[in-house]
Amino acid sequence: HVSRLGTTEVLYLAAIPVLLATHIAWQRQNARQIMTFAAMAILCALLYVPGAVWLAAAYLVLQGRDVFDGWRQLHTWWHRGLLTVLCIILLAPLGYALWQTPLLTREWLGLPAHFASISTIVGRLADSLYYLFIHGPREPALWLDRLPVLTIFGMLMFAAGVIFYARHILAPRTRLLLVLFIIGAVLFALGGPVGYSSIIPIVYLVITGGVGYVLHEWLGVFPRNPLARSVGFAILAIAIALNCVYGFRAYFIAWPHNSATTAAFHERR
Prior knowledge:
Mean pLDDT: 88
Largest sheet: none
Distance between the termini: 18 Å
Radius of gyration: 21 Å
Number of strands: 0
Strand content: under 5%
Low-confidence stretches: none
Number of helices: 13
Order of helices and strands: HHHHHHHHHHHHH
């Protein structure tokens, strides 16, 4: 839904997966120097997405050790100088644009032109979870009218994923996911340029963790029984397949034939 419109909303859908992928790759020991250059280039590129500066700042605060270790791996002075020059070159157009047009700073920070009342912001913050389980966003051009974002299967796996990450609350990746979700939800609640898509990747990452957690628990109960293991894999595979079929039908059949969707695109013309 987000990708097909070709709007800036897709940038928020991509920012968090790119940031998390960079975090995972940067922690690997092989090709450390190359990854340091690549990671810093990606972080600089993310700063061009409105509101992503807060995500990058949260990452640097929580995972500052990655930056420190990456810098330490650059053994020669010219490697460090080259990295510094690379960051300056990549950020120079952004700095020039903000200097030439100071009004862009507000949008770059992901802030609205006019702040709503506290009650409205709190209500939109609650909508971050309400849209997932009760009633989807009131944007028929992006979402199927009235239906929540998640299916029943997605809700159950999300709950399992929350349990899994709660059991590993001290893990760096858990804290990073939690902080990124909070930042995305707050920016969405403020009503600025950052849309609801900013938190969707985290939701599905938690769902993926829930699927893995359920399968792990099943295999823990039946560690050596090949029949039980096969049944567990089969049930989970069938549930995922049915969930995918439901999603395809919702997108290709239900959504384009929904009256609210038709009205929304008619108004766009």
